Amino acid sequence: MPHRPIYLDCHATTPVDPRVLAAMLPYFTEQFGNPASVTHAYGWEAEAAVQQARETLAAAIHATPDEIVFTSGATEANNLAIKGVAEAYFAQGRHLITVQTEHSAVLDPCRYLESLGFAVTVLPVQPNGLLDLNQLDKAIRPDTILVSVMAANNEIGVLQPLAEIGALCHQRQVLFHTDAAQAIGKIPLDVEAMQIDLMSLTAHKIYGPKGIGALYVRRRQPRVQIAAQLHGGGHERGRRSGTLYTPQIVGFAEAVKLALAEQEAETQRIRHLRDCLWQQLQVLEGIEINGDYTQRLAGNLNISVAGVDGQALLLGLQPIVAVSSGSACTTAKIAPSHVLLALGRSPDMAFASLRFGIGRFNTLDEINRVAAATLTTIRSLRAV
Ligand SMILES: *Cc1c(COP(=O)(O)O)cnc(C)c1O
Question: Which of 197, 223, 257 is the last residue of a domain?
Fold first, then answer.
């Protein structure tokens, strides 16, 4: 394979851990049954594997297995949560609340609901990326049915105060959904302690396969209703039809199991790498960090660089390091990141931004090489 850049884009996706792949492989060939086949051993084996995975995932977030609905990923889970709640509760109210820094897989379903006649309040964030709970409190109306606030931001890694938001929502009798695609396996998540009613998950940000995720849907206190968005065979208790993808489900659970077992040690190691990168970059003037430095995922560093063109910066770094500016989903469009604009960054500073996502397989040597290359690139661009 030709020389490839160092991969520091772990918020976009991660490689499948070889241990995850090993767990998945038998379910492609030997144990290939349909988990919905109840008349023979092939089906029973697959169903047992799915049930085991369901238990692992539920335990990881302090839920019960029947509260896990498998989906194709966090995009689908967000759509199912937001549209599913809107459709099930519209008689009680037609107002939803979310936040400017959310992923497009939350913002776009909300915009779609607006087109159907729902009202959506999109709250701003503070300059550090954190939601102001007083603003949330004031935004809740008698007709509010759902608050959707992400756990960890995919661009700036900022961690929202889930427990405080959950407590406020339950006190005001509003459902609380959180997109935890970037958080699962990386920070402790507890749907009871945090009073979360719906939570979107995905496997491919934590060394699991792409194309698999889940929606947690609370079944007790309160029993949350969602209207299915995919109709068919009535799988997942009618909440999401479609034959369950056993190998992906097994891989998802294995990825979560590994991430939890290694969470403490891995977080420390990755945070150290991130701090080393930031320390080395800080020697230059005019480099600003985006988002709160402490309330943040260990592997995230997002900076804006004054006095350089954002495109030129990315192009200059391309041979050395795989990073992104803004989110992977929006970089195809030439528009400054909506997340950085929400922090109050100027369009120029939002354009001239770099998102480093450090992960399980990165080394200190790689971080040092990336730091050196980034400094060289910025210096040469500024000299022009
Ligand atoms: C990656 C991501 C998604 C989309 O997840 P998919 O499983 O790729 O559909 C949604 N929200 C956040 C915060 C993400 O980081």
Answer: 257
